[in-house]
């Protein structure tokens, strides 16, 4: 026997085994599975209508990034979530049957999936409203985009929307089941909106159990359509719609803002939406008690107004104003609006102040709907209407010396509640009437 050959083969076997082990270990280390967790909702939590599933994902491999997150509900196909290290997915569960559903989530790093994380939730959608006075409210605000921009509007719009929602619940008989707030991409951010994602809107502590989501194009169109569908189930429904963000115009054009022959438009989180588009979606709405407030730059077109209460041309009408509706814009079609990053848009703040404090009681349109107070008790009944609050805000903007830099806003109103009279409507819309 050739002992030399045996020795050489033995050494080679040891070396191959050694190197194979090293190579195998290195390959395994470079393909560690990503780690994923579901932060919201919690296991066995009761959820409703629009559920923003969210969580985090990390990768132990320093040379790899998370490519995407996928979500699956029960046996439905996998769908991609938004984001990677912090991620979210809008589950539209409005029309699903009540019961238990299993949420599955996984992360992909380009090479390997994470372990699939699962949890079970109980879907409990509100029953159809059987009240004699069904009321629906929708708040939409997209304020903090894009990622690098010095024109962010902060979280003030969200906080103000919640304040208005609380007022409607406490004073106007609105049910929490029928209130929806859509803000940004559904996340609250640090540094008053300028920082990174902290948590989803639904994860925050809430005074009222209302529904939250992101102000994305998909969510907004879905919410508007559902608002119409739900309100149309009742002959005496009431609707409150408030939208706030940047409007689209040309700030260098100080005369018309570049909007003379264009529709008014407002930014959502991921796109623009025009007054005509909203008018088309709301066209089937039958509610004869509807308040619509659009607070943005160059927003007069939403009320079919340009400036000084002058109507827009027939070709540029939005179709939003209809009998039974009060449509208000926070600025004229030709002028910029203003907002506080901490508290929200200026016009809406003044309008709401006049409403909740009672200071707007008795305010009348005046010349060109500029607003004026009255000393006649005939016009004071202890209640403040949507219209009186508008005229109060217009008057304060025009006369308060501390607000002189904002007088150019010129909010507009198109009042067709309860119908369009020969001269003016003979009745105002009161939100607090049950």
How is this structure best described in words?
The N and C termini lie far apart (106 Å). This protein has helices at 3-29, 156-171, 217-231, 275-282, 346-357, 386-399; strands spanning 35-40, 46-47, 50-58, 68-73, 79-80, 82-83, 86-92, 99-108, 117-123, 135-142, 179-183, 187-189, 197-200, 211-213, 238-245, 265-267, 272-274, 290-295, 325-329, 339-340, 344-345, 412-415. The radius of gyration is 28 Å and the shape is globular. With 434 residues, the protein is of the alpha/beta class. A hairpin with a 4-residue loop joins strand 16 (265-267) and strand 17. The strands form six sheets. It has a seven-stranded mixed sheet with strand order 14-11-10-15-18-19-22, with helices on both faces. The protein has a five-stranded mixed sheet with strand order 2-9-8-4-5, with no helix packed on it. Helix 5 packs across helix 6 (386-399). Among the domains are: 35-123, Immunoglobulin-like; 135-338, 3-Layer(aba) Sandwich (Rossmann fold).
Topology:
Blueprint: H1 3-29, E1 35-40, E2 46-47, E3 50-58, E4 68-73, E5 79-80, E6 82-83, E7 86-92, E8 99-108, E9 117-123, E10 135-142, H2 156-171, E11 179-183, E12 187-189, E13 197-200, E14 211-213, H3 217-231, E15 238-245, E16 265-267, E17 272-274, H4 275-282, E18 290-295, E19 325-329, E20 339-340, E21 344-345, H5 346-357, H6 386-399, E22 412-415
Parallel strand pairs: 2-9, 10-11, 10-15, 11-14, 15-18, 18-19
Antiparallel strand pairs: 1-3, 3-7, 4-5, 4-8, 6-7, 8-9, 12-13, 16-17, 19-22, 20-21
Helix pairs in contact: 5-6
